Every structure is written in C-alpha cells, then in structure tokens.
C-alpha cells in the first residue's frame, strides 16, 4: 500500500505534493497528516507513560496485550481509527461495545482508562484516545517479545459511534476467507496485511463461542471441520461440549500462548489453528495466503517486519486530523456530555 510511506517522504514541487494528496484521498487515509513526533513538544513522555501502564497491567492480566491490540483493530475497521469503540451508551450514542464482535468479548477498557488518566495527569487535554490505542498496541506487542515500530500519531477522537458498522464491517472468525479479504480490501488493506495482522493471534485467548462451530456440526455437515487437527479437536470437544458454556476460554496459540512470535503460522501448517478464519489462511485451496503463511512460519524476522508495517497501514485508516473530531478528556464519553 504505497500510501503508508507518504508521511516520511520529503519532496519539492507542487505537483508531487498534489499527487500525494490525491493518492492519500484515494486510499481513504490521511497518513500524510500523522507523524511520529506529533507529541514531542506537548507530551514527550506519552509513549513511556502508555508502556509503563501496560507493563503494570501485564502483572495481573497476561491477556491484556492481546485485548488491547484487538480494541485497536476493531476500532479501525469501523469509521477508521477514531476511538469510537471506547464510547459508552448515551442519549445520542449507541455503543459499539454491544455489537456482536465486541459484546462480552472486547476487554481492556479499564486499562485504556488508566492510561488516559496517567496521560491527563502529565499532559492535560493533549493525547487522543485513538492515539492511546495505537500506542498501546505497539507497547503490548513489544512487551510480549514482538517487534517494535514507530507509531504515527496525531489522530483525533470521534464524536459518535457506529453500532451498525461494527456489526457489519469487523471481520468475523466464522466468515469465509473471501469475505474477510473483502472487508480488509474495503479499508485499503491487502492480502499480505490480512495474513500479517492475523498473526496477532499468536497471543491471547478465545471463547468457545467463536470456534465451537468447528467441533461437531461444521457448516451443517454433521461432522467436525476436517481441517482441524484430530488431537486438538478431541481436547476442544472436552473443553467446549455441545450445549456447554460458550464463555469458556482457551489459548489461541497452543505452543507459546503469551509470547508474540511466529508459532501461530507453524500451528496453521499442522492444522492447529483455533479459529476457522485462522486455519482458512492455510487450508483454502489455491489461496495466495498459503505461501505467505509458509514464509512467516519459516522466518520470524520477515513476519515481524510485515506485522509492524501492517500495523502502521491499519493505523492509517481514515483518521480524524486537524480540526475534525476532538481530544476526549474521558475516553468513554464525548466532551461536555
């Protein structure tokens, strides 16, 4: 996605500048308006404050890193990266927290609030909630042993939420690969981004309710998903019996559940992907995703580089900048409400 590097491009000439603006608008992003030094003069310790708060949260909640990056992901796919997912219900707002992909599963809001409180104490009214999610994602990944990257900043926060959009635009773990690819394409992300960002499932947990469709009666066949490893199938059928609780959780990555590494992709090669949407990356005959999975499975450095770039790409989806939106003082509600 050529637009992602525009913010670091230095060039002379009105034609080139105009071209950049045109390309940026075509992709529906404003990455040229985001930059790595946005808070250098107004809140120079912003990144360190975010990181230390998450480090503290990790001590009592090993899942928190995966939960925070999921908030960023689910936010960016709905009206862009504008922290709309953080807004609570109000008289004029239907919260995205009640959308099917988020209800009873999106978590980490309390840690976001803790980060925001620490930032407000240090730099009142400066750092947006949408930038908190972007910074928190990078910190969560690097603290779990994954890559680091330069987070582009300068997003502002939405004044409303989009419940319908959250229900329709966020990729589902029970959707086909073609549907998920279309949802990524709709926000300017390509197949490489899809596979790389799916690699975030190298840490964190999932509820029985998002994968039990694979265990007993897959797609109405009366049989389990044939692409599910038989040993894993047996253990999951015990964990998630028919008519059992849909809220029981298990690790997304069987081998290193709390480490950010490339084992997720090796799991797919042995049919040990937990979610249907994960395993389809490797088991969909003829898909371009298969070669990408294999390359990431054999080369951790390649995956880390691709993941970092794809996180930047995702963070560039339609941000509010300039005078659009606001800097929320409380991430849960719009200012003055």
Strand content: under 5%
- Continuous helix count: 13
Chain-averaged pLDDT = 92
Q: Output the helix-strand order.
A: HHHHHHHHEHEHHHH
The biggest sheet amounts to:
2 strands, antiparallel
- Placed side by side, the strands forming the largest sheet appear as 1-2
Radius of gyration: 20 Å
Class computed from helices, strands and strand pairing: mainly alpha
How far is the first residue's CA from the last residue's CA?
38 Å
Low-pLDDT runs of 5+ residues are 1-32
Give the overall form: globular
Oligomeric state: single chain
Report helical residue fraction. 40-55%
DSSP strand count: 2
GO cellular component, one term: extracellular region
Main location: secreted
InterPro entries: Haem_peroxidase (IPR002016), Haem_peroxidase_sf (IPR010255), Peroxidase_pln (IPR000823), Peroxidases_AS (IPR019794), Peroxidases_heam-ligand_BS (IPR019793), Secretory_peroxidase (IPR033905)
Organism: Cardamine amara subsp. amara
